[in-house]
Amino acid sequence: MERTPDAQIDLRGTPCPMNWVKLKLTLEEMGGGQVIEVVLDDGDAIRNVPRSAIAEGHRVLHVTPLEGAFRLLIERAGAQGA
Amino acid sequence: MTLGQADKLVEKRAEDLKAGGLIPQRQKGKITIRCKAPGGRVTAERLERIAVVARKYGSGVVHLSVRQSPEIPYVELADLDAVTRELAEAGQEIASCGKRFRVSTACGGCEYNPNGWTDTQRLALEATERFFGQPTPHKFKTSFSGCVRDCVRARAADLGFQGMVEPTLIAENCTHCTLCVKACQDDALVMTADELPVRDEDRCISCGDCIKACPFDAMVAKGVGHAVYVGGKHGKHPHAAYPVAEFVPDDKVFAVIETTMAWYREHGGKAERIGETVDRVGIDSYRRALRGIVGDALLTAADIAKPRWRRVLYRGLADTFPEYGDVG
What we know:
The complex is a heterodimer.
Chain A: E1 7-10, H1 18-29, E2 35-41, H2 44-55, E3 59-66, E4 69-75
Parallel strand pairs in A: 1-2
Antiparallel strand pairs in A: 2-4, 3-4
Chain B: H1 3-19, E1 22-24, E2 30-34, H2 44-57, E3 63-64, E4 70-76, H3 80-89, E5 105-106, H4 120-131, E6 142-145, E7 159-169, H5 179-183, E8 189-191, E9 197-199, H6 209-213, E10 219-230, E11 242-248, H7 253-267, H8 274-281, H9 283-294, H10 301-304, H11 307-310
Helix pairs in contact in B: 4-7, 7-9, 8-9
């Protein structure tokens, strides 16, 4: 069962590392336990961005392949309501 | 004192200087002092003291050597004792040059570097504590890289250790998201018909990118160890290192160093680096010695013919290697 995202960001066409920077800043605005829907290009973006998110403690809940891109649901690190 | 005795004294003094990590400069009476910094790590306190000493006794500059040592140039030979004492007060020791085991170099390793798999900092520190200054036929440089990116050039060291990881799949955790396949830049992972990633062991370079990419703890580390390279050097006549072992565990690293230095002392010619010794004496002689320590982790001719080894070396380099024979 998929969670309804609290925020969305389409990072298609945004090159590394700006895609990660934008996602990171957006996550910082969000509360702990909230979920963001992210769309990332195939290639460098999908290779690097999820890994950076995982390394910072965020949780990838779901990955869906799209045409030339991927849609991810990412839960922000930290306790709920934090 | 005769002239011959004087010459000997001068020669001995030059060798003493090198042993003590002092490098004579082209400016008469000036020396460069090489500070010991295993793995290129220096505490802030020591770094501050190096700066103070450089300002007081040198020319106010510090040079970072290619092998991670902070060097203080333009010190007067007459000030040597004071410099040594003032550095020692902050716990800063002097390094070494010449024909001996040198301070080990290392990357950040698994402690804080996102790519590292092995604790290169700890190993470089301990290797230096155990072996620093021990005599060898020529200089003997070791380095520790935490992963196959090999930032500190294990593949160009007399004896290099490079972290590697064996990934394995916990199928029940896999959501078939394909991020691991995307992360692999060596075409070593493919999705099968039942949508599980399968690894081609001959192509996998043991970098572990698939493990770090997996969001679901499905691709995990089964084992971590070191690739061992021997015989590398740069300089006027560079020599590429030969890969000789894989997945060597931490607890065998120092035995590998000891065995390699013993083999080198036994077979090495005067002023001959170990790469040249290996070529002259035969790589199988060294491999036989190493086998006693690493056992089946020893690489064979069949192993190094695989893409997983060929692709981590300069293109075509493996074709120039001596033949690895059967050493039992």
